What does this fold into?
Amino acid sequence: MEPNRWRLKELLYIIVAILAMIGASAMLTLVPTSSQTTAAATFRSLDGKQDGIFFLGHIFSIDIPGRTFDVLWIVGACGSLLLQSSETYDLGRAACGLPNIPLSIYINNTIGFKMTHSIDIATAQLGEKRIFDQLFWYPFDFYHSSSNFYALNANDNTSLPIVRAVFADPVNNFAPQSIEAETQAVINGTLVISRETFVGLQRTVNAKLYTFLLFVVNWALTLLVAYITMLVHVGEKLGEGIIVLPLTIILTMPTIRGLFVENPSFGAHFLLPLGSL
It folds into this structure.
């Protein structure tokens, strides 16, 4: 009886550990997201005394298989370009809002608001024949894109300064990070002030931790099945409930697999092959 009690105690420890990990997953919602560009922080960073135009792109959809993301744009003005009778976007700080002149907006040399942007594909070769893109490193995959912005006064086609041009706010478990640089572009033989923005898209801390936690649970259940199988193979007598447990775990595996963030296809990245025996 003593060996059986010891094995039951081991199983109890394993079950408690699994429940603790599941409980920890519920607490992940309290973990702050990774550093990211947000609309609120962008508005607070605007200087109402600085003359210029700002672009704020709210990312509302990311299509990783299609390698695109969709953006809704807010364009406003600060300083002397502000329409004084309009409401400002941040009453407590920046006097920035609607422009007092008509604008010709250009994004990536296309007039008007560009809604869909492309994600650059970076590939890596592992071995002699296998070539993987960023998705292979899920949930640590990283995507990026760059865009160029400039604005002209529609009355006389004079170039207007760009004070900010960012992509903001997390969506689909991705946190955008925008890096800007003031640049210049030649349009119809005229030098204009422009702004180049590099946006990086990486998964939030919550998404990474949650996926890795499921990976650990997957391995724990796999090792538990292997342990019970080994006991049966050496002739140990186990209760009927213990014998049925491996079958229950095997039936549970697909459900755990479906809980992975965005449920990527099997074999698409390095975690899933490692976590399935």
